[in-house]
Request: fold
Amino acid sequence: MEENREDHGLAEGKILSVWMILFVALVLLPSIFRVSLGISHFYVKIVIKMLEWATLQIEEGVKKQKAMALENLISTGIIQRDETPMEKEVVGQCRGCFSLADVMYFSKKGCEAVAEDEVTRRFSSEELLSWNLLSRTNANLHHVSWKLAAVWVTGILIRYCLLLPFRICLSVFSILLLVLATTVVGRFPNGRVKGWLSNQVQMICATLGIRCLSGLVHFHNRENKPQEGGICVANHTSPLDVLILASDRCYSLVGQVHGGLLGVIQKSCMRTSQHVLFERSEMKDRHLVRKKIREHIADKAKLPILIFPEGTCINNTSVMMFKKGSFEVGGTIHPVAIKYDPRFGDAFWNSTKHSMMTYAFNVLTSWAIVCNVWYLPPMVKEVLRLLYVLKVLVKCCLEGGLHYYTRKKKMLFTLLTESRLSLLLGQECLCFLGMED
Reply:
């Protein structure tokens, strides 16, 4: 019995040693030196092939059934609408006489318009053109064929039984490493050594965080990467935006104070580097933030500041109007456009609907997080702050393939044309905004 126990203990020790060696060789060391072994690329290619096969299976199944088109199987909005023109419906409703019940038709149309206007769509998850084999985007398409159902079940087993435990363990390790490392580095005296160590710790932990999600990030135009003393502005989809950008460059963050898990991460980062956190409800905090940002960018040796001027998370299909407060402090602006690939998982965080833990669970059980990041040329403040904000916003939209929306487009058009300041925007920006002649 004792010999069997010793043999069993030795076998467990060997297995644990193998796992530790694989973890250090395949995950930790590549993250420290920020090199890619090609594992994520290979994995993403396999997922793409599988999704393409699933799309073909769905199309063939729909053709065989001929009961409904593929467009009807997948919802394209928040509510289902009747596409019949209003004129024909009104003619069918009236029939030559008035009835009080006719009012209900117009009430219905009004409620539909309010429930699904242009702004509301920006705060709901992006709709997919084809099913990505995730349960939460299931439109009963796994019933199309038994082959598709088998692949769907296999995908659930892989994501929940294989990938999820590994990702949770790696996430816990990354957070513990961040907390412990920042605690140690925070005790160093201020200077170049502390600054270098702080940057290395944050970039390594950010890289590990991306590997937790089987992440694959493509950075474009790295020659335009934000420099010290500047302000980096980007469109905002989720807290992952910070993780992705921090894996390529360290920043001083400007953002809202959070509690829970995000609060722990924020406090850890504050020990080694200067960040500007504020409470939205406190007006004093806003003036103090503006003052701190001015002081920060005045020192050209400090890290660039990272700001999300939209002020909230948008579903990565569009960009809302940037708030002008981010541009009032002056300095050089470095625009960045971030675009996620929705086929592998929904990166959008709807904070009004999901808690942070629910969102983290959804992301950890997705196929992967794949996104593109475009560094755009730096911009210097121009004559009018409005034009400055618009040029930065349009640049982000054009590079990221995002849509632009504002309720005040007519007023904007009048202001620009009457003052003849539209010439400063350039024809490309005007065409994008729909203000060309």
Notes: The radius of gyration is 26 Å. Strands lie at 216-220, 231-234, 252-256, 276-278, 305-307, 318-320, 332-340, 370-375, 379-380, 403-405.
